Amino acid sequence: MQGPPQFTPPPPNKGMPTWLIVLLTAGLGGVFVVGILAVLAIYGVRKYIANAKQAEARNSLGQIAKDAAAEYESETISPGKPDGLCASASTSVPASASMVRGVKYQSAAGDWSVDASRGHAGFACLRFSMDAPQYYMYSYDAVGAKKAGDHFLARANGDLDGDGVMSSFWISGTITPGDVLSIAPQVSEKDPVE
Predict the structure, then answer these.
(1) Does 24 map to a domain?
(2) Fewer Cβ atoms within 10 A, N terminus or C terminus of the chain?
(3) DSSP string, 40-67
(4) 150 falls within a domain
(5) pLDDT tens, per residue, the chain with 194 residues
(6) Hey, how many other C-beta atoms are within 10 angstroms of the C-beta on 19?
(7) Residue 63 lies in a domain
(8) Predicted TM-score of the model (pTM)
(9) Which SS3 state, helix, strand or coil, does residue 106 take?
(10) Helix (H, G, I), strand (E, B) or coil at 23
(11) Based on the structure, what is the number of domains in the chain?
């Protein structure tokens, strides 16, 4: 005859305690969330910095357009002054797009006054210059000077990320049949984040 069954204790648990599994899962989840937030923050900061750099082009082209309009309208105030639009700038500032490829360019006063000897031409005629370092190469071209249909085009080209692909911003103005210089309502752009 057999005696009462003997109690055998369960074998010891060889896995991790439940509380440790929960703690590790929560910790890894927190690391994952913080990683996602960091990626979003980096993206947001980069976008903010790019927008700040693009503001240089938009503001500068807006000022060039205002200067072109002021110069065009001043013809009636100053007798003997050449009338009409300022003639095209002979060179861009800086002279080459490679000088703004992923870096700032510090222009000199002489860069903007190259056409001063030509009289009614270029940035010297517009009285436009920049003292601060710039991310963009600026150019100004005019076709004609004082009859309906004559126009100007001011451009800013840059390569903020240095990959060789240029961004373009531009604004234009056209003389209307009533001898009024009509400026485009906004700066146009192509590939602004390049």
Answers:
(1) no
(2) N
(3) HHHHHHHHHHHHHHHHHHHHHHHHHHHH
(4) yes
(5) 566 777 777 776 677 778 878 888 888 888 888 888 888 888 878 788 888 889 999 999 999 999 999 988 876 555 555 578 899 999 999 999 899 998 999 999 899 999 988 877 899 999 999 999 999 999 999 998 778 888 999 999 999 888 889 999 999 999 988 888 899 999 999 988 77
(6) 8
(7) yes
(8) 0.76
(9) coil
(10) helix
(11) 1
